[in-house]
Write a structure and sequence with these properties.
heterodimer, A: mainly beta, about 50% strand, B: mainly beta, seven-stranded mixed sheet, four-stranded antiparallel sheet, 11 strands, globular
């Protein structure tokens, strides 16, 4: 089974400042079809998660361009260029290369 | 706009079977997508349960495989989850999700809380 590990688990951030979350997989997420199926989701309290990024760096429809994804192989990063109040919540990485596995989640809160 | 809506009992007794249905609107269950179930224990993270394709083909989380069945009801545009021999550890919010071929879960139901208790 592929294990996904996120760091940090909690991230206090200042409004308007950047934030970064890392996600590491226990084995390469490069699929035999040439794609790497790593996505990022955001969950606000009391709501279902919503898709932000898919295949490492592709923003889903309607996602602001302050969100960006990068990485390859086993190491991936989600960056928020300037944190806004609506960005608080829990961020999850998820792999879909072999079945589906989520990271533990990273809680982003305002300082 | 695709919408998903979970339905089913909110309380299940230990050792019994949990059964949920996900009604899909605004899109066809026979489109080129997988359809997944994901759960989230209160205050905890997300766990993928399994998925089904329009052909009826399924994949399940290895840790739940022995207890899970996901099925498709094309005539009613919905899919279902059965989880047998439940315990308190199965108490969670259960979400149904559309699983795109690019590996992203793009549409989610609002979720339904299922509590396992006698």
């Amino acid at each position: 089974d592929i294990v996904m590990t996120q760091t940090p688990l909690s991230s206090p951030v200042t409004l308007g400042q950047p934030a970064s979350i890392s996600c590491r997989s226990s084995q390469s997420l490069a699929h035999s079809d040439g794609n790497t199926y790593l996505s990022w989701l955001h969950q606000r309290p009391g709501q279902p998660p919503r898709l932000l990024i898919y295949k490492i760096s592709n923003r889903f429809s309607g996602v602001p361009d302050r969100f960006s994804g990068s990485g390859a192989g086993t190491d991936f990063t989600l960056k928020i260029s300037r944190v806004e109040a609506e960005d608080v919540g829990i961020y999850y990485c998820m792999q879909a290369t072999q079945f589906r596995t989520f990271g533990q989640g990273t809680k982003v809160e305002i300082k | 706009q695709v919408q998903l809506q979970e339905s089913g009992p909110g309380l299940v007794k230990p050792s019994e079977t949990l059964s949920l249905t996900c009604a899909v609107s605004g899109g066809s269950i026979t489109s080129n997508n997988w359809w997944s179930w994901v759960r989230q224990p209160p205050g905890e993270g997300l766990e993928w349960i399994g998925e089904i394709f329009r052909s009826g083909g399924t994949n399940y989380n290895p840790s739940l495989k022995n207890r899970v069945t996901i099925s498709l009801d094309k005539s009613n545009n919905q899919f279902s989850l059965r989880l047998t021999s439940v315990t308190a550890a199965d108490t969670a919010i259960y979400y149904c999700v559309r699983d795109q071929d690019y590996g992203g879960f793009d549409y989610w139901g609002q979720g339904t809380l299922v509590t396992v208790s006698s």
